[in-house]
Structures are given as C-alpha cells and as structure tokens.
Amino acid sequence: MGSCVAKQGLSPGVKKLVVDIFKEIDTDGSKSIDIHETLKFWHDNFAKINTRAIFEAVDIDKNEKIDEKEWIAFWTKVKKSGHSENDIKDELLNLRNRGSWVQFKGIRSMNSKKLD
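Structure tokens predicted for EF-hand domain-containing protein (116 residues):
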C-alpha cells in the first residue's frame, strides 16, 4: 500500500484543483482522459501538439488513457521536483484557460518510475 503523495504531497487545495481540472478534461465522466477528450479540450489551440505532450508526460502505462491516479501522481512529481504550489496552480489555471501544456523542468516523463 505505497503512497507517492506522503512526503511533499500536494496540499488539499492544490489537489482539489488538480482533480477539478482532470474532471473538466474528462468530459464523458469515465474517470480517464483519452485522446479525443484532449483534442476536444484544446480544440484549435495546438490540440495535437498539446495532446502528444500531455500523454508523453502523464500516461504512465502508455494505454492512451490518463486516469486520475496518473494525473495526481504527475502533479505530485512536479512538486517533488522543486516546483512551488503557486507554479502548479498557475499551470493548472493556464490549462483551464486552454493554454499550452508546459514541459516542466526536471520532469521528462512519468515512464521513468512505475507506480503500484
């Protein structure tokens, strides 16, 4: 029963925002984000580039779906890599406004470490 949120985990407020943004992208409520949803989410704002980038960064098991656990694990890893919660909030709000996906410094992809 390992938890990757234990040390330096996200504060409740930031975690809520992380989950809220996830739900905004997960338009069919399936508890996972697929490529069609990200293309729809970004629409005309470099949708294909942003979709490729988000799946490279967050889709741990490469099943072309991002579940809530992968999404929260990604943002937790961003914080653990030294980014502040303010940076994370800014990026989440940028996403909410259909801004481009940002490649965080020190975060290549989630594939370097498998989660249980």
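Helices lie at 12-25, 35-42, 47-58, 68-80, 85-96.
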